[in-house]
Amino acid sequence: MASDLIRQYAALAEFLGRALGPDYEIAVHDLNKKQPSLVALVNGHISGREVGAPLTNIALQIIADRTYLKQPYKLNYRGISTSGKVLRCSTFFIKDEKGALIGLLCINFDDSRYKELSQKVFALCHPDHYAEKNIMVEDVKADSESSEKTEQESFYSSIAAATEDALLSVMHTVALPPERLTQGEKMKIVGLLEQKGVFMMKGAVVTVAEKLACSQASIYRYLGKLNREKKQVDTNG
Q1: For residue 68, what pLDDT is reported?
Q2: Nearest to 200 by CA among 16, 63, 108, 88
Q3: 72, 92 in Cβ contact below 8 A?
């Protein structure tokens, strides 16, 4: 039943992609697969992905913090394509008859052609030097300051790339190289990655263990301890 529903949304993705045009990327993620991934994609040139790509950081976060239980969709958040373009992204949560999350339908809009057109229009009625300094529309770059304040989606071509990006986003919490980190510091990093949903990706444990200079068994041990602590808090709460 779930696979039938995903196939229906895959057909819907193709329809929306053709109806909306080349500036809209339509993607469907199947979360019921052993390795959740992109199963339908129209206008993939926008994000730079192909079918089979892993979940984005935002998709992982949605699953990890169970956002889908509180709302049917997530609208108009910022994404950055692999080529650096700023995208306007929205995600619809695909659920089965019992309300379980089984997939995601995503629409990513690239407005760069419209920015270019607006610049040409303004250039018709203003001297070039004036338009360049006062009117020209510019992309908002994904610098470190804005990324901390603004929720931003990143697109990946591989699980390793997704895991490494998540690691980079949390490694700033410690100032030492991995081989000099204490067990407590490593567990803190593992906890932050768990909150981001990183360990839902097959093979993430291997990559994290390598980056933190520890064994896979240690990562599983940290995860087990964090899970027990979470259950204890939930029980006491």
Answers
A1: 93
A2: 63
A3: yes
DSSP character string of 73-142: EEEEEEEE-TTS-EEEEEEEEEE-TT--EEEEEEEEEE-HHHHHHHHHHHHHHS-HHHHHHHT-------
In the chain, the amino acid numbered 232 is Q
φ, ψ at 22 (rounded to 5°): -70, -10
Q: What pLDDT score was predicted for residue 139?
A: 52
Angle between helices 159-171 and 204-211 (to 10 degrees): 40
Helix (H, G, I), strand (E, B) or coil at 198: helix
Q: Are 47 and 79 in contact (CB under 8 A)?
A: yes
Mean pLDDT of 180-197: 90
CA distance 36 to 101: 12
Q: How far apart are CA 40 and CA 27, in angstroms?
A: 6
What does the mean pLDDT of the chain come to?
Answer: 86
